[in-house]
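Quick one - inputs below.
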Amino acid sequence: MSDIILQTKGICKSFGGTQALKGIDFQLRRGEIHGLIGENGAGKSTLIKIISGSYVRDEGEIWIDGKPADIREPKDSLALGIRVISQEFNLMGDMSVAENMCAGDYPCKGGALRWVIDRKRMNEEAQRILNDLGEQIRAETLVKKLSVAQQQTVEIAKALWEEPKILIMDEPTAALNDQETKHLFDLLRRLKARGVSVIFITHRLQEQFELTDRITVLRDGSLIGVLETKEATADGLATMMVGKNISANYQKRQSSAGDVIYETRDLWVNDQVRQINLQVRRGEIVSIFGLLGQGQDALSRALIGDIRPRSGEIYIRGEKTILRSPRDAVRHKIGFVSEDRKKAGLLLLQTLKRNISVASMNKISRKGIIRSGAENELVNTWIEKLRIKCSSSSQPVASLSGGNQQKALIARWLANDSEFIILNLPTRGVDIGAKYDIYQILEDFCAAGVGVLIISLELPEVLGVSDRIYVMRDGRLVAEYQNSPDVDSDMIMASAVGEIQPEKGQTGGEHG
Amino acid sequence: MDKQTKEIGVKGILQKIVDIVANGGLLVFMVLLVVFFTIQSPYFFSYNNFLNILQSVSVIGITAAGIMLVIISGGIDLSTGAQMAFIGCFIAEVIIGSGIPWYIGMILSCVVGMGVGLINGLLVTYAGFVPFIATLGTMNIIRGAAYIISNAQAVYISDPHFAWMGIGKIGSIPVPVVLFLTAFIVTWAVLKFTVFGRYVYSIGGNPEASRLAGINVKAITISLYVITGFLASISGMVLSGLAGSSVPVAGESYGTDIVTAVLLGGASLRGGKGNIASTFVGVLVIGIMNNGMTLLSVPQFWQIFAKGVLMLLAVALDQLRERRSAARV
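Output:
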């Protein structure tokens, strides 16, 4: 029995003209949790897809347990005991947890009834696995009734239906709050103790330090280095990932806030989201921080008129305004970058140019006819200002990296002269380099008099960029903090999880 | 070993054929059809027959321009064939008998078509019906209405103005061909140069993102069905003009012919994709198939059979393109 359970030798893969992987020699030890990090486009996903058989490598070898393995299809990797849990869940909402877990491999009754599913045995086996994981989920429950975190657990339980040798997790914590993440880590440690080897992909360095034994860094399709986690530092890893020296902590400039541009008074959105009083001034970056699922999405949709609030008032530039649709919001020069880039942001079939210009039609057209000169000028200006990496503005937006796609969406609202921009999870699935670019962009426009509202699940982000912080819990804004270098971050987290009584104006934040 | 390389060779050639067909090979397919029919029938390759093809394909071509817009926006309209039949009956039974002047009659016909489109549009947007189901329902309602008002009898239309829509000429070009080309040129210009055209593509590609970007998705969707209804009325007038009478049973296959033509032209039923030049070729392919098979005396039932196969091929092509573009990302 070899100490190395998975080894790749000189893996290469190209798509069209671009070489996504340039000879990767990766090693996974038996029973270790191995972190895999790198910016978007570094080749992490491609490598995983080659190991799992979704892509076929152009060159190189894969060795499992000391033997060469010819993985060409997903079923090859499944047969070798490799399980991948991707960012997007592959669960059927209308089926039970147990049915999802066995995924077609139903236990059947014997004899003449061998075509009949043995539900009792199926549920018992599923329940045993769930109990082993220390989960309070019943095997008969329909998946759609579970929370996101619970669904993730079901994904893991599904992978355990047949004891895997290698478990690969692609950004599993993106949708989880801190407690759920901690719970997931405990679970992975227990699996590790049972001899399962884990590859763990995440953007969050902190999680790598907390969980992994070793870390492999990829950049531009090459393997940059392998470190023992206890010897790694955040700055060191960040430098390896981006290839230049950047500070892991973002420091904000001083701002000078102007008039109130957007204000809500006692806004009731639905049963959960209620009593919302918030205010954003020109030249100010305001964050709403909260754990996942506190009503942030509904609130953001209400702020742009996509959900009609039950009661309460919205004031835009000091005037009472009723927003009937997102179109109304756009007319009032409000931009909105949604939490789901692909589903509710990008026009994925179209070019970068059209994605940027779509909200600026009245600027670049006359009597319904588009002036293509004006369009090109507008689009190119913003591509340059936001440093969007592309071969030309006619490049399909789908072929850009996540960070550049996000920049394109921000460019959409800057191009139409929005004066107030709401961003829900602005840096979700965005690599570190682009993340700081985005913060810088927001600050620049803030300085030019734009008001910015960020909805975020990440405390470091909130502390790094905002002038003022609201904390959202269970549908309400429960606290407000003026940000400063010595703001008590523990206190903010405590009000987000509800450990302390709501307290307004903790460090001098008051309503204007 | 030898066998294996041979297999790769065959596979490679198949792959090549698939590549050619998938990448604008529709034109190649059309040329092959022309060559085939020219060899098979002495009457096929002539100026007059080509004019014939253009004239008869105009009936579906005019409406195909609208259907293409609907399909790009992510919808579909199955009711147009029935609309064409209904308009003929409406003219024969209602307009002619009542002594309404011909020009008012034409306008009324268009209004009726646009009304049907409006209903389709409202069902799809405000009632939230799947376009396939909504227009399947209106298709049957309108087909039924055509039978009801006509008692399923074809009635001679004596007014020469309506006949002109089918058999008249402007210069030396048949009126239907002029209408067909006009519909395509206008649609081309709309898609290429206007904000409206942009929005059609956006809505088809991602309705949610379009709505959040401030596009009035419902209004534009409705207007597309109304445009299609209008064009179906024109098609209906051309059809009864060509026949010289109302044709209550007409257009049974037109609805599917049009969709087949648009899909052959590369528009995707998932929305967001489609262009006018390829759709034009798609329409021509349908026209050539119809004409050629008739010249070869292929029985009507086999013609329907063949067009069914063609429709599935069009969808298979769409799938193929989708898979290839997915593999590229």
